[in-house]
Design brief:
The chain has about 280 residues and is of the alpha/beta class. The chain has nine helices and five strands, in the order H-E-H-E-H-E-H-E-H-E-H-H-H-H.
């Protein structure tokens, strides 16, 4: 078994319970040690976008960062700093939203993956916090797979089922949770000091059938930026949602690492650049 194959095998063997290593506070020799033990890299990918008058612009990044910590703890991962910007042009009508293009999100994820692969990390788990990033991150994972370097993108697995079981109010649209009871409860559980419940309002705008299929200006649909009813949110609900999401995400990560350990060796430097 060569060094790269051994590193991949270690990606599963290491998931016994060493706990996460945080890249931001580590030294390069510590990074080398993480590579040698086959630690999977974990990247939280968030966004900076409006979440109504009561939630912070960083809501998606907060959620992705927390879930990434839980995944990294469970699989002894190499936790990278959260990416705080994403592809969120649908919210450009609200001040404070900062959006990256599809190509930029794809390029960031691909470049991060290639750099990690060159260092010797066996694989990457991206925990995505925003719907707008999904297509670009999916394409980046396919770009990296061309060279045989595996990437898992985690998108809040089972959220619709969990929300239905925990929340009192319906979603504004199928699978659409934005500044509503779900997200407000989660931020109340993680950072209650950032939530302004006195400003929370309900909004159930008419959702076009083409939502998600064509570019949509969300400010035209909901001037408040709220989709749903956040007024019944509670930290206890947020904790229940987070715990359920963590269980499912960890299960996905462990299954992924089992697959990684069974893979043959690839050449991550063969990953082509994004198409112009």
């Amino acid at each position: 078994m060569d060094a790269k194959a051994a590193s991949r095998a270690g990606a599963t063997a290491s998931a016994i319970s060493r706990g996460r290593s945080e890249a931001a506070s580590a030294t390069w020799p510590e990074a080398g040690s993480a590579c040698r033990r086959g630690a999977p890299a974990v990247l939280p990918f968030g966004a900076l976008e409006q979440h109504g008058p009561h939630l912070p612009l960083s809501t998606d990044t907060i959620m992705a960062a927390w879930l990434s910590e839980k995944v990294a703890d469970a699989v002894d991962g190499w936790l990278l700093p959260a990416m705080p910007l994403g592809n969120t042009s649908a919210n450009d009508g609200f001040p404070g939203t900062v959006s990256l293009s599809f190509d930029t999100v794809r390029a960031i994820a691909t470049d991060v993956g290639r750099s990690l692969a060159r260092s010797g990390f066996p694989c990457l788990i991206i925990v995505n916090g925003d719907w707008g990033n999904r297509a670009a991150l999916g394409q980046a994972s396919r770009d990296l797979a061309v060279g045989g370097w595996p990437v898992l993108v985690v998108d809040y697995p089972g959220l619709a089922e969990v929300a239905s079981a925990v929340c009192e109010t319906p979603a504004a649209g199928a699978g659409f949770y934005h500044a509503d009871e779900v997200e407000t409860s989660v931020v109340l559980a993680l950072h209650p000091e950032l939530v302004h419940m006195e400003r929370a309002v309900a909004s159930y705008p008419l959702m076009p059938a083409t939502l998600g299929s064509t570019p949509t200006d969300l400010a035209r649909l909901s001037p408040s930026g709220v989709f749903g009813d956040p007024r019944t949110a509670a930290a206890t609900k947020g904790r229940a949602i987070l715990d359920a999401l963590a269980d499912r995400a960890i299960g996905l990560a462990r299954s992924f690492l089992s697959d990684v350990a069974a893979m043959g060796d690839g050449d991550p430097t063969a990953v082509p650049p994004p198409a112009p």
